[in-house]
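REVIEWER CHECKLIST
Item 1: Sequence provided? yes
Item 2: Single chain? yes
Item 3: Sequence as submitted:
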Amino acid sequence: MAEMIPPKERMQREQISMPQQEPKERICNFKEVPLGYSQKQAIYEAQRCLQCKNPKCMKGCPAEINIPQFIKKIVEEDFAGAYLEILKTDALPAITGRVCPQEEQCQKYCILEKQKKPIAIGRLERFVADWARENNIHGKLPKISRKEQKVAIVGSGPAGLTCAADLAKLGYQLTLFEALHQPGGVLVYGIPEFRLPKSIVKYEVKEIEKLGVKVITNFVIGAIKSVDELTREFDAIFLANGAGAPRFMNIPGENLNDVYSANEFLTRSNLMKAYAFPEYDTPIKIGKRAATIGAGNVAMDSARTALRLGAEKSYIIYRRSRKEVPARAEEVHHAEEEGIIFNFLTLPVKVLGDDKGNVVGMECLKMELGELDDSGRRRPIPIPGSNFTIEVDMVIDAIGTSANPIVARSATGVKINQWGYFIVDDKTSATTKEGIFAGGDIVRGSATVISAVGDGKVAARAIDKYLNTGGSLRKK
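Item 4: Structure as written out by the authors:
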């Protein structure tokens, strides 16, 4: 068992960096960039934890993990115990340990953040989940009596999977409907292999299925069956169908060849296995100079994917400065290491094409920053007469997504807002129709995986309360 380290020494230790592939190597493959902690590194990092009596880190965890407890078990070298501790509240630890923005969540509240060296909670979570998978450690289903009530979940992304897992542990009969041919939602089709391997998602989905969750793929709610029809078969419904409709800038030239939405580009790459080229022949035409508009995580994913698929130069075009970039600092750092070219304070105003309808460039304006806007960032203002052209032959719009109306159209009495997202009670995730709940991107718009996990947990508690107090859609 690893020794306990005096508090003073713990505070003096530096955070352990995550080993990773070298940039020149990784731009030629789709293998995961961060390589994970070794046992020795994980124990060393875990020993830094001060085991606070009032752990504020838990305040920043939507998955409600008992962070000090699982870290303590790592120090004790009880890795199986650490995994089972996490699994009490987080059904997707290998996923959240990889893609959760811990620097804005749990680590932000770590007492050592004041010294700019918080405990690497996400890296430790990933280590524990990976160790458990490699050593065939599984969660144990608590002894519960199966209930008669049936719950339908529309969408198998992080919100739907979390809600399904939490309700299955309570004994409810769960059926999860997924429109595509693989469960996982955005975890499968939206995040590249180099950031979240598909095998990890597949494994954690299988673990949830073992809880008794029935997963039905290739089933589009709103087309094959309506939400209204589901109300006659299920006692409660959780809508977690995501926000998968693309959004464009609506500038001239966006109808030219080789202009993609990030949704289409990443979905093709992920589901058609472009990352395994040349073993799989994927219909994606990649330009020599690819421009991605936007600077969120999806933009970083798109620009880095284009580079791996053969672009000689890959640009990020962003209308604000580096300081305002919404993507995770780690993703921006990885993109810079890989040679992604950042054009800050730049606004595209027109996509230029040749006489055959192919992209040949992009006209842009220089920007300057003004006063703060509603987002808390300085408002970008165009500089008149600053027009210039960037030579590109491929454009990816990564400026966000919109709500796909197909599910909402089939849900009588479930109200949406002006952007097409479901209106819910913040505390319960309840929609405007009793017995129907909603969460994730179809409520928030484009948000983080961990936010969706939190929504799934909130909805599961509310559905349990609704059904326990006699509620049921089928009784109406």
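Item 5: Key structural point noted by reviewer: The radius of gyration is 23 Å.
Item 6: Recommendation: ____
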